[in-house]
Write a structure and sequence with these properties.
CATH architecture of the largest domain: 3-Layer(aba) Sandwich
CATH class of the largest domain: Alpha Beta
GO molecular function: ATP binding
Strand order of the largest sheet: 6-7-8-3-9-10
Strand content: 15-25%
CATH superfamily of the largest domain: P-loop containing nucleotide triphosphate hydrolases
Keywords: ATP-binding, Nucleotide-binding, Transport
Bound molecules: adenosine-5'-diphosphate, magnesium ion
Order of helices and strands: EEEHEEHEHHHHEHEHEEHH
Number of domains: 2
Distance between the termini: 37 Å
Protein name: Branched-chain amino acid ABC transporter ATP-binding protein
CATH topology of the largest domain: Rossmann fold
Organism: Alcanivorax jadensis T9
Length: 252
């Protein structure tokens, strides 16, 4: 069974169809990448899947469950985590604090238990910290653990965004342009993280990315979209060679 099924998804803003009948499936364990010119609707598709936007039509099924009507925090709790094209971290908190916040949707204690600081809460607090420390190790962030986000280089903040998403123990991670603004060397590292997430963590990855060398290297399948509509699907090489895709890029 597919982990994610997106069926005929659509949304308009002020009469403009930003996403117009997009369907695709993401299989467990694959890296599936959306490519397309700026304004094609890629981030909007992410916002629809993570339930920040309400689709005007279509359906989203995750892990066999229809999530189209669920609120965003429920979807996060079911195991979909995401990063944002523009980094969304708490600048005046440390890396560790940001990751503990990212862990929040996994807390199963009730507010009054937290208030009373019952033993159950203390125990789970320890478990949360252990998991977050593992994520810090996995992404080589130990040197930045207690540093404030505001003082970190851009490339490190991009990795912290991924760490925050991983802290919620997702089954599916949505990465919106993970390599944008990164140097060649940082992009190379990003490719390794993505490969490790797939191979070592067994995660399923849905990504938006422009850097075609990164896309070719890590993606199992690629879907090209333009003006809200699907254009071509296949391997990175097949999609890049598709005349409709070439035309869409030349037209911008
Ligand atoms: P991409 O990520 O492919 O570059 P986006 O999904 O960000 O493109 O945007 C697709 C289209 O939807 C653009 O025309 C954009 O202006 C529009 N759009 C996205 N979000 C909103 C919003 N919240 N309000 C109005 N228009 C939006
Ligand atoms: Mg975008």
């Amino acid at each position: 069974m597919s982990l994610l099924q997106v069926k005929d998804l659509s949304i308009s803003f002020g009469g403009v169809k930003a996403v117009d009948g997009v369907s695709f499936t993401v299989e467990p364990g694959e890296v599936f990448t959306l490519v397309g010119p700026n304004g094609a609707g890629k981030s909007t598709i992410f916002n629809l899947i993570s339930r920040l936007y309400e689709p005007s039509a279509g359906q989203i099924v995750f892990d066999g469950q229809d999530i189209t009507g669920l609120p965003a925090h429920k979807v996060a709790g079911l195991g979909i985590a995401r990063t944002f094209q523009n980094i969304e971290l708490f600048d005046h908190s440390s890396v560790l604090q940001n990751l503990l916040i990212g862990r929040h949707c996994r807390r199963n204690t009730r507010w009054f238990e937290e208030l009373l600081f019952l033993p159950k809460v203390r125990r789970s607090e320890r478990q949360h910290r252990l998991l977050v420390e593992e994520v810090i190790d996995f992404l080589d962030l130990a040197a930045y653990r207690d540093k404030l986000i505001a003082g970190l280089p851009y490339g490190v903040r991009k990795v912290v965004e991924i760490a925050r998403a991983l802290s919620s123990e997702p089954k599916l991670i949505l990465l919106d342009e993970p390599a944008s603004g990164l140097s060649v060397e940082e992009t190379q590292n990003m490719a390794w993280w993505i490969e490790d997430m797939q191979k070592d963590l067994g995660l399923t990855v849905l990504m938006v990315e422009h850097d075609m060398s990164l896309v070719s290297r890590v993606s199992n399948r690629v879907l090209a979209v333009s003006e809200g509509r699907p254009l071509a699907m296949g391997t990175a090489a097949e999609v890049q060679a598709d005349p409709k895709v070439i035309e869409a890029y030349l037209g911008t």
